[in-house]
Specification:
The protein is α+β, with helices and mostly antiparallel strands and about 190 residues long. The chain has two domains: about 45 residues; about 100 residues, no CATH class. It is built from four helices and eight strands, in the order H-H-E-E-E-E-E-E-E-E-H-H. A three-stranded antiparallel sheet has the order 1-2-5, with helices on one face. The chain has a three-stranded antiparallel sheet with strand order 6-7-8, covered by helices on one side. It is elongated, with a radius of gyration of 35 Å. The protein starts with a helix and ends with a helix. The relative contact order is 0.08. The mean pLDDT is about 85. Zinc ion binds next to loops.
Length: about 190
């Protein structure tokens, strides 16, 4: 332990000496160089050149236009990145309250909640025909229901995963069209 501590101390002292030596050699020359640079810049700025007023005005006008364009572009980028659709995380679709999250910028699978009491919904398959006449996937519908308050959705065409996909397409459409912003405002 003590040996290790000694070694650390020795290394520290050596490093401090090297740093001091480097500083003593280089810093004055760097400072001198900086001072000369500042001096020549000052001389350049305070010197006068014979330039026609029209050329000077044109240059200034061009510079101002460039600055204006750059500022406009920066504002646009800022506005585009500010209220992102990633804030859109719930909505009522097909009469059901859906909530979801994002993995990066990609929509994750939404989950269904009761629009009346906010309990997570259950679902069951229903057939549009008497069970004896049912063929595979024929007119299959899904009904969402709440075991807490007894709320029940209209029968929705397709199996559970079909409905999830339909909801995801709706979320995607509303996110891209900007419709989600009015949904968020309605909630406030
Ligand atoms: Zn409920």
């Amino acid at each position: 332990m003590a040996d290790k501590k000694d070694r650390w101390l020795r290394n520290g002292i050596v490093l401090a000496f090297i740093s001091a030596a480097v500083t003593a050699v280089f810093v004055p020359s760097v400072l001198k160089w900086l001072w000369e640079l500042l001096l020549s810049l000052w001389r350049l700025l305070t010197s006068t050149v014979g330039i026609p007023v029209w050329l000077l005005s044109l240059t200034v006008a061009l510079l101002l236009a460039l600055l204006y364009q750059a500022a406009k572009r920066a504002m646009k980028t800022l506005a585009a990145s500010a209220p992102s659709f990633l804030a859109y995380r719930e909505d009522i679709i097909f009469g059901i309250h859906w909530r979801w999250s994002y993995v990066g910028n990609t929509l994750d699978e939404p989950h269904e909640f009761c629009p009346d009491c906010d309990t997570r919904l259950l679902f069951r398959d229903e057939y549009g025909m008497p069970p004896g006449l049912v063929t595979r996937n024929f007119n299959l519908q899904t009904v969402f229901f709440c075991e807490h308050c007894g709320w029940q959705s209209q029968p929705l065409d397709g199996e559970h995963h079909d409905i999830i996909n339909r909801v995801m397409r709706q979320i995607d459409r509303r996110a891209r069209s900007g419709e989600w912003q009015s949904t968020l405002q309605k909630k406030r």
